[in-house]
Every structure is written in C-alpha cells, then in structure tokens.
Amino acid sequence: MPDNNLYTNFTYRKDIRETDASFHVNTVNQIPVSFSTRINISDYGFDPRSNVIVEVYNKRTNSRVKFEGCGTVGHMVQLESASLDKLDTDSIVNFSVKIVREDYVIEGLIEGIRDYFTTNTGTGSGGSSDQRTSLLPVNYGAENLGQITCRLRFDDSGPVLDINNSIEDARQSLVQSPYFVATQFPGIVESVVKRAFDAIGPEDIGTGDGWEERWARFAIRLMGGDDPRQDEEIDLQNDDWYLDVAKKFADTWGLRNSFAAHLGVGEEE
After folding, report:
1. Which of 37, 46, 52, 198 could cross-link with 70 by S-S, CB 3.0 to 4.6 Å?
2. Could you tell me if 39 and 52 are in contact, meaning their C-beta atoms sit under 8 angstroms apart?
3. What stretches of the chain show up as alpha helix (H) in DSSP?
4. What is the pLDDT of residues 190-230, one digit of tens each?
5. Domain boundaries in the chain?
6. Cα–Cα distance between 55 and 32 in angstroms, integer?
7. Which of 142, 169, 167 shows the shortest CA–CA distance to 155?
8. C-alpha closest to that of 193 among 231, 151, 240, 150
9. CATH no., domain 4-113
10. What pTM does this model have?
C-alpha cells in the first residue's frame, strides 16, 4: 500500500467518533511500549473491502508508525499488545484511524487521539510527576501489604495501583491475567472516576491536565462525549452513572467474554 502522502483526499469522508476508537496503552516507566485497540466502525456504511489502518505518532520526535493488522471493514481484527518498539518516543503518543478504500481514497478518519486508558508497568520511581502520562500507574514494589495482593491508593499526582512486592512475576501472573482485569479493573475505574468528578467541581475539564480532568475526559468519551454535569437527568451524587461508566469500560474491552474464554466456559453475548 502506498505511503500516507499518496492517499487521495476525499471531500465526503466521514469523521469517526472518538467513542468508537478506544485504545489501551501499556507503558514501562512511563514510556509507551505497546497498545491494544477497540475500534467499532460497523454503523458507518464503509466499503467492507476498505482497509482499517491505525497510526501512532509523537509530535515532539516527529516519529510515526503505521499498523495495518486491523484487516478490513468487513473482517475487522482488533490489535492486542501491538509493539511500539519502532516508535521514537519517551512521552505521550497520539493515535489516528483511517478507513482506506482499495483505490486509496480515505472513507473515514479520526486524528489526534491523546487521551486513553494507560497501564504503567514500571515501578513508578525515578520520574517526576509532570512526566506521568499513565491514567493508572502500577507499582509492583508495594511493601507491608501482608496478605493483600493489591490496593488502590491516591497520592498528589493521582491514583496508583499497588501490587504486593512478594508476588513473583506479578505483571503476567496477576495484573495482566483475564481474572484480575475482569474482576478488579471495572471497580477501580468506577472508584477513580467518582473521586475525579467529586474533586473537579463545576469548572471546565476540557483543557486541564490534572489527573482529575484526564480521568473525567476519559469517562466522558467512554460514555459518548457528553459532560454528565450538563444533563439534568443525571445526578452525580448517585452512584448509578459511575456504575454505568464501569459497565461501559467492561463492555468496550469485552472483559466478561475474555474471562469466560479464560475459564473455558464459552462467551456470552
């Protein structure tokens, strides 16, 4: 396939909604190392033969990597832990998704996605708070937890998931296991989002770079792009909306089905 600069501009191309292009980035000591996708383009009417292309780039280093492993619109394949070793970056990355026809016309496009769910698999030490781009850093060196395997705590720079340092190879055996992700992460998302909205108050969250604003933007995009504080039918003092966020997170990443497949009992719709 030709390079990006040979793609033909298409006046009537459709804008892909942010809520239909979700990414989960794994970092090591704050450096992005891999990512997974959850892209939903089923209701746009794209040509089923068109290719789905994901690009990851960093503006500071002017580095860009293209991923064509998503297949076509008719046979969509989600990327899982796609390596970023060819990307020159030491900070936050941006994503774009292009739907490209066989004649290289771009049917659909979304660019500049820079807020996404991130899991940091470094120790959390050695970096300043302004370098921290992960929504949920994971600290594998937590001491004095006794028989507790993990705990969610908050420091000045936001939420941290502490993992008992006595657990060997905790990244593979615990944090990345389908059981842990399915049973722990939705509750973590619910708790952190609630705390974020409680802390923000009425001010604008569109440009703030604090952990509260970043988590609030993540939740809003996940729920369709509307600020719940502007909806008179939503009472943020009630836990229902936060539960809906957790459910949407689980649905987006297919956590129940992944867990069922892990147990070998089959998936549920």
Report:
1. 52
2. yes
3. 170, 178-200, 211-222, 240-252, 255-263
4. 999 999 998 886 666 776 778 898 898 888 888 887 788 88
5. 4-113, 117-259
6. 14
7. 142
8. 240
9. 2.60.40
10. 0.61
